[in-house]
Amino acid sequence: MSPQKGSAIIPELLQLTSLLPKSLHHIKIAVPGPFQEPLIYQHDQALAAGIRCKVPLGRRQVIGITVDENTPTGDIDPSKLKAIIEVLDQQPVLPNSILTLADWMSRYYQHEFSSSYFLALPALLRKGEAATLKAETWLTLTPAGEAIDIEQLKRSAKQQALMAFLQPQQRCSMPHARDHGFDLTLAKTLEKKGLLSIDNLAHHDAIKISAELSETPLTLNNEQQQALTQLTGEGFTPSLLEGVTGSGKTEVYLQAIADCLKNNKRALVLVPEIGLTPQTVRRFRQRFVDDIVVLHSGLSDLQRQQNWLRAAFGQAAIVIGTRSAVLTPIPDLGLIIIDEEHDQSYKQQDSLRYHARDIAILRAKNEAVPIVLGSATPSLESLHHAINGRYRYLQLNQRATGQALPYVETVDMRQQQQQHGLSEKLLIRIKEHLNDGNQVLLFLNRRGYAPSWFCEDCGWIADCVYCDAHLTHHRHNNLNICHHCGFQQPPIKQCPNCHSHSLTAMGTGTERAEEFLSQCLPDVPMIRFDSNIASTRKQFEEQLAKTEAEGPAIIIGTQMLAKGHHFERVTLVGIWDIDSGLFSADLRAKERMGQLLTQVAGRSGRGKRRGEVLIQTYYPDNPIYTPLLQHDYRSFAHELLQERKRTRLPPFGYLAVIRADSAHAERAESQLKEMATYLLQLGSVRVLGPLPALLSRRAGKFRYLLIVQSDKRSQLHEALNPLHKHYPREAKQVSWHIDIDPAELA
Ligand SMILES: Nc1ncnc2c1ncn2[C@@H]1O[C@H](COP(=O)(O)OP(=O)(O)OP(=O)(O)O)[C@@H](O)[C@H]1O
Ligand SMILES: [Zn+2]
């Protein structure tokens, strides 16, 4: 055999060996795109779940996340597998606890498979940035610092305080020290004494939980004490803490967290989007020595990434965040709290339409920890679970300060002189309360100057060109604006219908209410809260600060005011209009109305003086208001639960909405008709529709709904599951999505 021949064979052999499958691993990766399952790639090593990889997808390269081995995938042909281009992480960025939730969410909400995985990551990590913390100034105790008896420092109170702060933690970052009033100069003095060292570096390990308090907790009243005792338990213990407005739920949370930290575990606190103001955070920071990390949409991408990583590395004992913070990795989690659990902002209303409360419950169950859902006005779902014993039902019926709940009275608008929808009676009462040196809060759930621009001669109303909605008139910039799509135009001067020039703003929004009240009461400061004036966190905070700084003043705003804020000086709450909740066809309109009314009324009389609430209504005798006027949200909710039971609506049945959007109404409708036929022949679900959405056209697209109902959750899911296989999400100029457990029919 000639050597030449042999050498020709060897490269071929080599090539063959490199193709041998035994050295290759099949890796399941959640990849962005319209996939209902992870895709499979090959790689020369096994990879743990939760690792980011760069992979080819069509002609592009994208970042995906490895998922659990057990995650099912469709059939694959191994010869078609593409290789991972680059592995971005040495260690998983998402721990198993979060991967399990993400996997469940993908299936349950029937959205693109990868979306829950990406939702769990901060934006910069989604884009492939390194999962590392930036260098930071750290204060670390030296052995001498650890050993010193701080009594020896008593000549300098500040030095002693910093050492007392640092000793239980051993190490802390400079920003954390600053939050507690310690500055770098002070730290340098102690460094010179050899008690601590100051370094600039990036720490990636956990920090010891000190469980020390930096203020003395309030003494709990009996109800609070009982609630606290019952809500902590071994393993998964869900509780509903139903406490009237001002009953001191926050104090119960704070003390429950203190217990959690003592057990060397960390706590997760979820609050509604607008509830997470610096005031809230301050209240927590005042109480605890341990570091607290905050996660909300107002942070820059970098801040969010850094805070998220600090939480994930165990550098914070408490994580406070809004909706998506429910997916933050937290080592040794010991407690979850959801404040204002009824709040709508916990449900995401686009793309992955998840409910953070439901995910939190699942997380608590998986991680075997107690979870507390707190509210003065619990959602019907949570109430139902508390009544039937699935959750512990803890009640606080008294205000913590001992102050009685406010007097509530209706104003019969049919018998009142009124201007801009403000009754004579309410105006008189406003003046009385201001004269007594108090503040008044007026609730009007319509921002802008007037809800419509209207022809006095023929009744024509200016509509949005792209939506099935009236334009709202805004005076400060003289524009008519669509609150659904943002379309705007200067107010039309001549009626396109009858050519009259008598066009005017009709109705009252917050802007007009403020203008009118300023005319009636020129010397009284007006503090407005609506998304025009307080849309950013900073603006909102500025308005809140004004309420604290001012004496007699009028606070006027939309439902932004209903989110658990404590206005010490408000003694009168006036509800400008509430009736719209009675007539809305939306699923939860009545429930929301009751919650809003109770929450807004609950802002009255939280200080030293008993409060008063005046509700303007054209339907004072409507029985739905009766329990609410007596602070009896519980009876109100029981009544609604009975109604839901009769109609087999949640929590007594399960619901999904399929919505199709298209520039051509008939296409959206016919797509849903096809789906309805398919679903009906299954025989396991009830189907209503297609019908136009409550907002039947938005931004140029017609919106149709199919309401799918079932008495069994599993049947609903089984019925819906195959839809995406039969009907592409976007085709023939129709796009559609499923909303499981919908919050509204919009
Ligand atoms: N045990 C207590 N003793 C005295 N004051 C208390 C006690 N607990 C709470 N408070 C005070 O009562 C007030 C209301 O408490 P908090 O804001 O926690 O109520 P809440 O139940 O969260 O109300 P809301 O649902 O209306 O937001 C606060 O000023 C708080 O400091
Ligand atoms: Zn519009």
Automatic annotation (TrEMBL):
Binding site for Zn(2+) 1: 455, 458, 495, 498
InterPro entries linked: DEAD/DEAH_box_helicase_dom (IPR011545), Helicase_ATP-bd (IPR014001), Helicase_C-like (IPR001650), P-loop_NTPase (IPR027417), PriA (IPR005259), PriA_3primeBD (IPR041222), PriA_3primeBD_sf (IPR042115), PriA_C (IPR041236)
GO CC aspect terms: primosome complex
SUPFAM superfamilies reported in the protein's UniProt record: P-loop containing nucleoside triphosphate hydrolases
Cofactor note: Binds 2 zinc ions per subunit.
Domain named Helicase ATP-binding: residues: 230-396
Top EC class of this enzyme: isomerase
GO molecular function terms noted in the UniProt entry: 3'-5' DNA helicase activity; ATP binding; ATP hydrolysis activity; DNA binding; zinc ion binding
Domain of life of the organism encoding this protein: Bacteria
UniProt record similarity statement: Belongs to the helicase family. PriA subfamily.
Function as written in the Swiss-Prot or TrEMBL entry: Initiates the restart of stalled replication forks, which reloads the replicative helicase on sites other than the origin of replication. Recognizes and binds to abandoned replication forks and remodels them to uncover a helicase loading site. Promotes assembly of the primosome at these replication forks.
Name of the molecule in the record: Replication restart protein PriA
Organism whose genome encodes this protein: Reinekea thalattae
Encoding gene (name): priA
